[in-house]
Amino acid sequence: MFVSVMLDPGGIDSAKALAQILARYGFKKVQRALWESTKLGSSQLAVMKREIDSATDYYDTLRIYQFPFEGSFVLTELKQKKWRKCVIRSEK
After folding, report:
1. Is 49 left (phi over 0), alpha (psi -120 to 50) or beta?
2. CA distance 38 to 12
3. DSSP character at residue 11
4. Which phi and psi (to 5°) does residue 43 adopt?
5. How far is Cα 67 from Cα 71, in angstroms, rounded to an integer?
6. What is the reported pTM?
7. N or C: at which end does the chain have fewer Cβ atoms within 10 angstroms?
């Protein structure tokens, strides 16, 4: 599964913590605030999200793009310490 993470950390400490978490899960930094991985599984992603949740605060924002996930494109956003998920399915 292809997973891309876009970061907008609220501070330097959050930025460092998030970078360490992403690097530990095999993500590569491809742009200033963009990390990508093609080797992450669904179960690893769930664990990583819990780690991210504990390392962030109210001012941190991030988006996770996943494709394919059960044949769909999934956008997950963490904003103001709340997770939101949008699943986009193709029409046949």
Report:
1. alpha
2. 27
3. S
4. -70, -40
5. 8
6. 0.90
7. C
What pLDDT was estimated at residue 83?
96
Question: And the tokens for 40?
Answer: 């992450």
d(CA 13, CA 25): 19
- Does the bond joining 68 to the residue before it have cis omega, within 30 degrees of 0? yes
Helix (H) or strand (E) holding 88: strand 82-89
DSSP labels for 21-70?
Answer: HHHHTT-EEEETTEEEESS--HHHHHHHHHHHHHH--TT-EEEEEEEEET
pLDDT < 50 positions in the chain: none
